[in-house]
Write a structure and sequence with these properties.
- There is one protein chain.
- It contains eight helices and 13 strands.
- The chain is α/β, with parallel strands linked by helices and 282 residues long.
- The strands form two sheets. The chain has a nine-stranded mixed sheet with strand order 5-4-1-8-9-10-11-12-13, with helices on both faces. The protein has a four-stranded mixed sheet with strand order 3-2-6-7.
- The longest helix is centred in the last third of the chain and has 15 residues, at 257-271.
- The chain is globular and about 50 Å long.
- It starts with a strand and ends in an 11-residue tail after the last helix.
C-alpha cells in the first residue's frame, strides 16, 4: 500500500506555449505552434505524478481566483488529486497565473502570485497522511509552522526549492528541518553563493536536467549519481516536479538511493516528452 501524501504550495493556472522558435524580445512578436491551459505549480505536478504511481494525494492550496478556479479544480480531480483540502481565494485577489514559454529544450516563466499559497494551517488535519511535500521554499518561508505541525503528526517532509531572485537569511535552518531537499543545479548554486552548505538537509537531491541527478546525505562521503537515459525534450515544464514524485515514491518505500534516482529520472524524462507539467500522465 503506497503511503498517502499531502502536497502544499502555490497552485496556478498554467498557460503553456510550446515549441516556441525563440524567446520574445521587446518590440517583437513570436508565434507559438502549440498552447495548453491547465493546472500548474510544483506541488500539484508532483502530487499528480505521485497519484499516477499509486499514492493517495491531497492538495493543500488556495485556488486561483475565478474563472480559473473551476479549470484548475477539474484538472486536479482528473489527475486523482483530492481538492477537499483546498480553499477559494479571497475576494479581490488577482488570479494566480503562470505563462510558460518552452523553447529549445528549456523554458521561462512569467507569473502572478497574489494572496497566500495555502489556506490557514488550522484547517488541515495532518494525521491522515504519512508525508508532506512542499512545492517551493517560499511557501515554507511564509508558513514555517508547517514543519512542526507535520512532525507532531509523524510525517516525513520533502521540499523543492523553486526559483527565487533573493533568498531570505533563514533558508538554511528551514532546509535543515526537512528530510529531503530537492533543488536543481541553478538553485543549488544560488544557495551556495549565499553560504548555505550543499548538504544542509539530511538528504539533498540535485536535479541536473539531461545529466540526470545526484543525491547525498549529510553523513555520506560522496554523491550518488544516476544519469538516466537521453530523450528528445518537447517541453521541460514541470520535469523537476515529476522527478520529485518518482524519487519520493521510491524513497517512501525505503528503496536504495540509486533506485530512487533512477525512478525520478524516468518520471522527469517522461515529462519532457509531452507539453505541460502533467501532459505525460494523460
Amino acid at each position: 500500500m503506497k503511503k498517502p501524501v499531502l502536497c502544499a504550495g502555490r497552485l496556478y493556472c498554467d498557460l503553456v506555449f510550446a515549441d516556441v522558435p525563440r524567446m520574445p524580445t521587446l518590440g517583437t512578436e513570436v508565434f507559438a505552434p502549440g498552447m495548453s491551459l491547465h493546472a500548474g505549480g510544483g506541488a500539484f505536478i508532483t502530487g499528480a505524478t505521485l497519484a499516477s504511481l499509486g499514492h493517495r494525494v491531497s492538495q493543500f492550496s488556495v485556488l486561483p481566483a475565478p474563472p480559473f478556479d473551476s479549470i484548475v479544480s477539474a484538472d486536479l480531480r482528473a489527475h486523482h488529486v483530492d481538492v477537499a483540502t483546498c480553499k477559494p481565494s479571497e475576494t479581490g485577489t488577482d488570479p494566480q497565473i503562470t505563462v510558460a514559454i518552452s523553447c529549445e529544450g528549456d523554458r521561462a516563466f512569467l507569473t502572478r502570485n497574489d494572496g497566500p499559497a495555502t489556506p490557514p494551517l488550522e484547517s488541515i488535519d495532518f494525521s491522515g497522511y504519512a508525508h508532506l511535500h512542499i512545492g517551493e521554499l517560499r511557501t515554507l518561508q511564509d508558513d514555517p509552522e508547517l514543519i512542526d505541525m507535520a512532525r507532531n503528526a509523524g510525517l516525513t517532509i520533502s521540499l523543492d526549492c523553486g526559483w527565487q531572485d533573493k533568498f531570505s537569511p533563514d533558508v538554511a535552518s528551514l532546509i535543515a528541518a526537512v528530510d529531503v531537499f530537492l533543488p536543481n543545479e541553478a538553485e543549488e548554486a544560488a544557495l551556495i553563493a549565499m553560504g548555505v552548505p550543499q548538504t544542509r538537509a539530511p538528504l539533498t537531491v540535485v536535479k541536473q536536467g539531461q545529466a540526470g541527478a545526484r543525491a547525498r546525505g549529510t553523513g555520506d562521503g560522496c554523491w550518488i549519481r544516476n544519469t538516466g537515459s537521453p530523450v528528445t525534450a518537447l517541453d521541460s515544464t514541470g520535469a523537476g516536479d515529476a522527478f520529485n514524485a518518482g524519487f519520493l515514491s521510491s524513497w517512501l518505500d525505503n528503496a536504495p538511493l540509486d533506485l530512487c534516482l533512477s525512478v525520478g529520472n524516468a518520471c522527469g524524462s517522461a515529462a519532457v516528452q509531452a507539453v505541460g507539467g502533467t501532459g505525460f500522465l494523460q
